[in-house]
Design brief:
Pnp Oxidase, Chain A, 10-stranded antiparallel β-sheet, about 20% helix, globular
Length: about 180
């Protein structure tokens, strides 16, 4: 099936984004045209406002693992962390490939990409992360703790979203 793509019409941090329909079996009735695709602003709003992000990892031997985490969505990336000894973080250290999704099953956002250890950010950005976490959850880590072992930054490669499947099912692919 030929893929119909468009340039993303809303603002993303990555100008190399392609927007299209995902390739699904014909039985699902996904339109072949790009009319009705969701705007990237929908994903940004859902990711910014979400309180819980489900992080799905795999161990070195391929055993899947899913955990809910707090996080902050800034600049089209998800910042999250936890104790380095958690199974999730041990899995990430062995295999950075991850799938992240939100809780709702009818207003869907699914992201695939890599979660890498967060290097010590500039003080201004660490303060921005801490303030965003505090505003969202009522607590946050000390800005100096960002970049310590157990802190990760997730960058999406592919994102899927829909509100009214199959009419608006949309895929974003990042370079």
């Amino acid at each position: 099936m030929a893929k119909t793509t468009a340039r993303n019409k809303s603002n993303t941090q990555n100008s190399g984004v392609r927007v299209s329909r995902p390739t699904l079996a014909k039985v699902y009735g996904v339109p072949k045209n790009i009319k009705g695709l969701l705007d990237w602003a929908h994903v940004q709003e859902r990711m910014t406002n979400a309180k819980v992000y489900w992080v799905c990892t795999a161990s070195r031997d391929g055993k899947p693992h899913a955990t809910p985490v707090d996080g902050v969505w800034l600049n089209d990336k998800l910042y999250f962390g936890g104790d380095p000894s958690t199974r999730r973080n041990r899995n990430l250290d062995a295999n950075p490939a991850v799938s992240i999704h939100l809780e709702e099953g009818y207003n869907v956002v699914i992201l695939e990409g890599d979660a890498l250890p967060l290097e010590k950010p500039a003080p201004e950005f660490a303060l921005r992360l801490a303030n965003a976490s505090n505003d969202k959850y009522g607590y946050g880590v000390n800005p100096d703790q960002y970049g310590n072992k157990g802190s990760y930054v997730f960058s999406p490669r592919v994102v899927f979203a829909w509100k009214q499947f199959p009419q608006d099912v949309t895929r974003w692919e990042f370079d």
